[in-house]
Design brief:
Elements lengths: L2 H11 L1 H8 L3 H18 L3 H17 L2 H14 L7 H5 L27 E14 L9 E19 L27 E8 L1 H14 L4 E6 L6 H14 L5 E6 L9 H24 L5 E7 L2 H11 L11 E8 L5 H10 L6 E6 L4 H10 L18 E4 L19 H13 L9 E4 L6 E4 L2
Parallel strand pairs: 1-5, 4-5, 4-6, 6-7, 7-8, 8-9, 9-11
Antiparallel strand pairs: 1-2, 2-3, 10-11
Helix pairs in contact: 1-3, 1-5, 1-12, 2-5, 3-4, 3-12, 4-5, 9-10, 10-11
Length: 448
């Protein structure tokens, strides 16, 4: 785990002390911490983020009382393992200068007719409640604002299968002087084709009928995610899972901005009814045999409420089975998760919860909401009847905290999800997992 991430976590965990010591200035500092936590999901341990965190720490020290300064210095000292505390400032002085942003306005898009060997095209059948941006470029087609109704279509994404680490959602990186997307190296959304609802259903049914397996995988993204990144992640997961059916996406109108957390919270509630309709479409009109659902982070709020309200017993004959449901790092309070899990018990063949103690985004969410999140492990680990709880903290512990989206970027977790979907295996039969405790307090963890 990087020192940047360690310090972010340390500052969030001492938030009550910081609030007392900086007084009325705390809301601004809190919002900046939340912004940095959200940026970490996309930037990782970048120099720009380290610099901004460095400047935040300097201002906290300036605003804090003498006792508060000691608290902050202790946090820094405990964070910089094997280093002197004063080196924090000198380590983050490099800044990004010049250059273009990846996928900028002038960048060419790859041609769908010129994909090199080792690149696969994934059609992602989407539903979205986003508003059109007015732009024609695929990577800017939908905005972070709410639309009037659910729109449908096919997003076409290329995913390299050679030279890309499993789980890696690669895109052009300015620090590597990569300013143009390369299908052989990057996961790229190259085309968005909107469709009317009936045309969408017809295209989806034809695609499902021609797939190697008559299954569908529906992905629901979380907070601070654009339509482009949601489509890219859905395609990457499908490829890395070696999923043989068709890939679906519901992209709710996340603002795609780490500073808009409360806006996203309001939007996910607004989106729930629309998502429920899309889930029902997947189950009853796609012609699939089984439908699997993976929801990430805040997207779990829409999924869990939809599962509570949907009534599979009323579906017409020939509808798909709601098979494997994955709750990945859910940003929902532990108490709410328990209540909703009891309400939808038995509606899916199997439900699995992945949680981690090193999830910076969920620690930030707890800071905002005041209650532990169901995606957290440790003392907050949620164990409920009808859900297999897996503590993923032990997976590649040096890296697990680097991404809130660890479920889609860790080889061992992707392998475990593949075992669930392809072989329908319960945790006791999945070799990477070990049983911890006994019913009713039993859960599963990764072997070290």
């Amino acid at each position: 785990m990087s020192n940047t991430l360690r310090l972010l976590i340390a500052l969030i965990e001492i938030a009550p002390d910081l609030e007392r010591t900086v007084g009325s200035a705390w809301p601004q500092f809190r919002d900046e911490l939340l912004d940095l936590s959200g940026r970490f999901e996309h930037e990782g341990d970048s120099l720009a983020l380290a610099k901004d965190l460095d400047e935040l720490v300097a201002r906290l020290l300036q605003a804090a009382s003498p006792d508060g300064k000691d608290v902050i210095r202790r946090a820094i000292a405990e964070t910089l393992v094997g280093e002197e505390p004063q080196t924090w400032r000198s380590k983050a002085t490099a800044t990004r200068s010049g250059g273009a942003t990846a996928m900028g306005a002038g960048d060419p898009q790859p041609s769908s007719e010129a994909f090199p060997d080792g690149v696969v095209e994934v059609p992602v059948f989407y539903g979205t409640d986003r508003k059109l941006s007015g732009a024609s470029r695929p990577d800017d087609f939908y905005s972070g604002r709410r639309g009037d109704d659910v729109a449908y279509g096919i997003a076409r994404v290329t995913v390299p299968t050679e030279g890309r680490p499993v789980g890696d959602l690669t895109s052009p990186a300015w620090w590597k002087l990569q300013f143009t997307p390369d299908p052989a190296k990057h996961v790229i959304l190259f085309d968005v084709q909107p469709l009317e609802r009936e045309s969408f259903i017809e295209a989806l049914r034809d695609a499902v009928a021609s797939a190697d397996e008559r299954d569908a995988l529906l992905f629901v993204h979380g907070y601070n995610v654009t339509f482009t990144d949601a489509a890219r992640r859905a395609a990457q997961i499908a490829v890395d899972l070696k999923f043989r059916g068709r890939t679906l996406l519901y992209s709710w109108a996340s603002a795609g901005d780490p500073k808009q957390y409360t806006v996203d919270e309001d939007t996910i509630d607004w989106s729930t009814r629309r998502f429920r309709g899309f889930l029902q479409l997947a189950l009853t009109e796609a012609g699939a045999r089984d439908v699997h659902v993976i929801a990430h982070s805040m997207g779990n709020r829409a999924l869990m409420k939809a599962l509570e309200e949907i009534e599979v017993s009323t579906f017409p004959a020939g509808s798909a089975t709601l098979c494997q449901v994955i709750f990945a790092a859910p940003d929902i309070s532990c108490d709410t998760f328990r209540d909703l899990a009891a309400a939808f018990h038995g509606r899916a063949q199997r439900c699995t919860l992945y949680a981690s103690s090193g999830d910076i985004a969920l620690k930030a969410s707890k800071l905002v909401n005041g209650y532990a999140r169901a995606g957290e492990a440790g003392d907050s680990l949620v164990i409920v009847d009808g859900v297999d709880t897996i503590d993923a903290t032990g997976v590649d512990t040096s890296l697990i905290g680097l991404r809130h989206s660890y479920f889609g970027s860790k080889r061992s977790i992707l392998r475990d999800i593949a075992e669930i979907m392809m072989h329908r295996e319960e945790p006791s039969l999945r070799f990477e997992l070990k049983e911890v405790g006994a019913p009713p307090g039993r859960y599963w963890a990764y072997r070290k």
